[in-house]
Design goal:
Blueprint lengths: L13 E6 L7 H15 L4 E6 L1 H4 L6 H17 L8 E4 L5 H10 L4 H5 L2 H7 L9 H15 L5 E3 L5 H18 L8 E3 L34 H10 L18 H14 L3 H8 L4 H27 L2 H29 L8
Parallel strand pairs: 1-2, 2-3, 4-5
Bound molecules: tryptophanyl-5'AMP.
């Protein structure tokens, strides 16, 4: 793939990230994304956050549910600490620049690059790939457009998005190279903290996911205290006590996962957590983890439910965010038309 032609340092630091409103959000989304989005907002840089509804429809979405899930997603952002006055919060389809730039990127990205995307392979595994939508295949190109429409330089995500961000770098570099410009920044993935990959509570080798058929495998942001406690109590573990160093968790994916979750929820490192709980059995560690999870998540769930009682207000916030997003993206995409030789003569 192409070599990066420039570093993000040439551009002022700007953060962009997105979440698909394709189902209820999980503890994985919270720890890997939402919690960190709120923290980034306090670093004094531009933060732009998006509910990527056009990505969501790459697989079938019931229209009424999509609308509801988008509002739920917006409520989750706000309840997790993203302040729509300080960050830009909107849904993707309200800003046409995303789809417009995605088309240009479809003409820059190579089929060979798309063919290497593991998420497309995972999503079509065991199914008839011929029957997948063209949008699902082109998904990473729209994702690159989301980021590049704002000249964003840093993208906080969970581990599973790393390959898509590498592709974003390749698309930006190829565009710059082909047109002989230094127009797009080469984005930096920001994958940090104890919970960049929260695993299923039923299988420590699988990612916690909103699309897992088993509800017991995940903690949903809409779960109440009882549901959270039950799911953690029933979480798969092994019979050994917690070790005193992280090395002792090497071949114990379920134990490692619970330690990571505890660390991320408490703002400690995983090493601190094992040091603190060395020798503890899961019968005593799990209730502590459940108590911590409830203490962190309950206020978020309560606030989400409060916000969802006024859907018109959520729509208003998203609309206002879209106006602010459009003001940044429009001139960038107009410049792309210019660079690529498209006449723009309407007045
Ligand atoms: P999505 O909607 O699958 O997930 C949203 C965010 O949550 C993170 N995440 C996790 N982190 C840790 N552990 C988990 N089990 C877990 N599950 C999900 C994801 O890494 C992600 O950060 N393609 C993206 C959406 C997107 C996007 C973008 C992201 C579209 N355009 C531009 C960044 C920039 C996605 O499907 O995320």
């Amino acid at each position: 793939m192409a070599e990066p032609v420039q570093t993000p340092q040439a551009f002022s630091k700007r953060i962009f990230s997105g979440i698909q409103p394709s189902g209820g959000l999980t503890l994985g989304n919270y720890l890997g994304a939402l919690k960190r989005f709120a923290e980034k907002q306090n670093e004094g840089i531009d933060t732009i956050y998006c509910l990527v509804d056009m990505h969501a429809i790459t697989v079938w979405q019931d229209p009424a549910k999509l609308r509801q899930q988008t509002r739920e997603g917006a409520a989750a952002f706000i309840a997790s600490g993203v302040d729509p006055a300080r960050s830009i919060l909107f849904n993707q389809s309200q800003v046409g620049a995303h789809a417009e730039l995605a088309w240009i990127f479809n003409c820059v990205a190579r089929l060979g690059w798309m063919n290497r995307m593991t998420q497309f392979k995972d999503k079509t595994a065991g199914k008839n790939a011929e029957n997948a939508s063209l949008g699902l295949y082109a998904y990473p190109s729209l994702m690159a457009a989301d980021i590049m429409a704002y000249h964003a330089t840093h993208v906080p995500v969970g581990e599973d998005q790393k390959q898509h961000l590498e592709l974003t770098r390749d698309i930006a570099a190829k565009f710059n190279h082909d047109y002989g410009v230094e127009f797009f920044p080469i984005v930096e993935p920001v994958i940090e903290g104890a919970a960049t990959r929260v695993m299923s509570l039923r299988d420590g080798t699988k990612k916690m996911s909103k699309s897992d058929p088993s509800d017991q495998s995940r903690i949903n942001l809409t779960d109440d205290a009882d549901a959270i406690a039950t799911k953690i109590r029933k979480a798969k573990t092994d019979p050994d006590p917690l070790p005193d160093t992280l090395d002792g968790l090497k071949d114990r994916p379920e134990a490692r996962n619970l330690v990571n979750i505890y660390a991320a929820l408490s703002g400690k490192t995983a090493a601190d957590v094992v040091a603190e709980h060395a020798g503890a059995q899961f019968v005593s560690f799990k209730p502590k983890l459940a108590e911590l999870a409830v203490a962190v998540l309950s206020p978020i769930t309560t606030e989400m439910n409060r916000l969802l009682r006024d859907p018109a207000e959520i729509d208003r916030v998203l609309g206002q965010g879209a106006d602010r997003a459009e003001a940044i993206a429009r001139p960038i995409v107009d410049k792309v038309y210019d660079i690529t030789g498209m006449i723009r003569s309407r007045r």
